[in-house]
Each structure stands twice: as structure tokens, then as C-alpha cells.
UniProtKB/TrEMBL annotation:
Keywords: DNA-binding, Pyruvate, Transcription, Transcription regulation
Residues of the signal peptide: none
PANTHER family: TRANSCRIPTIONAL REGULATOR, GNTR FAMILY, UXU OPERON TRANSCRIPTIONAL REGULATOR
Pfam families found in the cross-reference section: FCD (PF07729), GntR (PF00392)
Statement: the UniProt record of this protein carries the keyword Transit peptide: no
Taxonomic path: Bacteria, Bacillati, Bacillota, Clostridia, Lachnospirales
Protein name: GntR family transcriptional repressor for pyruvate dehydrogenase complex
Source organism, top-level taxon: Bacteria
Residue ranges of domain HTH gntR-type in the record: 5-73
PROSITE patterns found in the cross-reference section: HTH_GNTR
Annotated InterPro entries: GntR_C, TF_FadR/GntR_C, Tscrpt_reg_HTH_GntR, WH-like_DNA-bd_sf, WH_DNA-bd_sf
GO terms, molecular function: DNA binding; DNA-binding transcription factor activity
Length: 257
């Protein structure tokens, strides 16, 4: 991944730690962009990109002339390979193989759906996706209803594309209830909330390449398992697929260059 994207991910990791660790409590104003740049030794572009993502997720709110405020402490970003839960390790081989095939099929289809939808997305579609996202977040902990709302989100993209064969194929995959329950049991709720918000933002900006990439990462996050950050502030190292090396290492490297 491009270096600028890596630095943005590390800034996001730092922000997550400050919120999850209680350093930045709810409704508090966080340091300004310039202060964060000086503190972390990174560019303003990287800081601004990280803040924008957390604004999209509803975790931060930037107000013109006033600053940026913490609006939620439910902070999730995809976790490091070294710390990922091996969610499939205790699952029988038949179920694991079925899951891999199911996930592979979705990974082949859905990133391309996201790409073409982003190219032609209308304001009406974006409003619909945002509504579904809000409703899904309210269903955390209600497994059956959450899964149905998850299906509604993914089908909304396919329906907008309008290809009946693709719609039928995706619906058949999403109707595999045992796989949907398996994913929710093993990987929880927050991965979907995070990626749906980010994908919706990319679609609203007609950024087809980013929408495709995020949808693929969404699938890989389930496939490799996800980490839910529950308030523990800890230093983490991300691999190249979901990069965010320890911030100190990166800033030291940047200073040497």
C-alpha cells in the first residue's frame, strides 16, 4: 500500500488509542490538525484524511471554526495480523471449507458491484445506504435482525446495479443463513458497521476504486477474522494488507529519510 495510506492508518490507530484509553473522553475537543502534525511528526494531509474517516464513522465531529470533538467511544478499525483471533481454528473442517468457498464467491462478486455502483450512484441511493447503516448500528446485539439488515445493505447495491443474474447470485449467497450466523458468531458486529460506513462514503464520492478496495477488505476482514477494540489502549502493529506499523517506528523512519 502507498506510504501516505500507511501513515493515515497509523494516525487512525493513534486516535483510536486516545479515545479507547480515555485520554480523549466523549464530547471533548481533540488537538487541532496542526497540533497532531507536530505531535506525530506526519503531514497535515495524513491527519486530515484520518479525521475525515472518523467523521464518516460518527466517532469524531469536525465543526468549522470550533475544532473536532469526540462523539462516540465505540472505536473499531481492522486489527493486526499478529493479534487476530484465529476464529476458524475450533471449527470442523467441513464448515471451514464451506465458509471459504462462500466467502470466496462473495469476494469475487461484491467488490465489482461496489465499483460499478460507485460510478453511477445517485443521492437517493446514498441516503438509502446511510439509513440502512444507522438502522443496522441500532441492532447490534440482535443477531437475526442485524443479519437481515446486513443483507439489505448488500442487496441494495446489487439492486441499484440492476443486473438480475447478479442479484439472484448474490441473494442466494446471502440467504445461506448458516454462513451468516457463523460469521456473526465468530467475528461479531463492528466489522460490518465500520466497512459499510466507509464503503458508503466512497460511493457517495463516486470513488469507484476505493469502493472496490474497501469491499474486498471487508470480505478479507471476515475471512482472516477481525478484532473488536473494546476500550483497551494497546500498541499494535499491522501487516501490509491492513497496514499500521507502530507509530513510533514510522515517525522515526520518516525522520531518518
Amino acid at each position: 500500500m502507498h506510504k501516505a495510506s500507511q501513515v493515515t492508518e497509523q494516525v487512525m490507530q493513534y486516535i483510536k488509542e486516545q479515545i479507547a484509553g480515555g485520554e480523549w473522553p466523549l464530547d471533548s475537543r481533540i488537538p487541532s490538525e496542526n497540533e497532531l502534525c507536530r505531535l506525530l511528526g506526519v503531514s497535515r494531509t495524513s491527519v486530515r484524511a484520518a479525521l475525515q474517516r472518523f467523521n464518516v464513522l460518527g466517532i469524531l465531529e469536525s465543526q468549522h471554526g470550533r475544532g473536532t470533538f469526540v462523539r462516540s467511544d465505540k472505536v473499531y478499525i481492522p486489527g493486526p495480523k499478529e493479534l487476530r483471533l484465529n476464529a476458524l481454528s475450533q471449527t470442523d473442517e467441513m464448515t471451514k471449507e464451506t465458509f471459504r468457498e462462500w466467502r470466496q464467491a462473495r469476494n469475487v462478486i461484491e467488490p465489482e458491484i461496489a465499483y460499478y455502483v460507485a460510478e453511477a450512484a445517485t443521492p437517493e441511493l446514498v441516503r438509502k445506504l446511510k439509513r440502512i447503516n444507522r438502522e443496522q448500528e441500532q441492532l447490534i446485539g440482535q443477531q437475526e435482525l442485524f443479519i437481515q439488515k446486513d443483507k439489505e445493505y448488500h442487496m441494495a447495491l446489487a439492486e441499484f446495479l440492476g443486473n438480475k443474474l447478479i442479484m439472484q447470485c448474490l441473494e442466494s449467497l446471502l440467504n445461506m443463513r448458516e454462513m451468516q450466523l457463523f460469521v456473526n458468531d465468530k467475528f461479531g458486529y463492528m466489522g460490518g458497521i465500520y466497512f459499510h460506513a466507509m464503503i458508503t462514503d466512497a460511493i457517495s464520492r463516486h470513488n469507484a476504486d476505493r469502493a472496490r478496495t474497501l469491499m474486498l477488505e471487508h470480505g478479507r476482514d471476515e475471512e482472516q477474522s477481525s478484532r473488536i477494540f473494546d476500550g483497551m489502549a494497546e500498541r499494535e502493529t499491522l501487516d501490509a494488507s491492513l497496514p499500521a506499523n507502530a507509530l513510533l517506528r514510522v515517525t522515526e523512519k520518516e525522520k531518518r529519510q
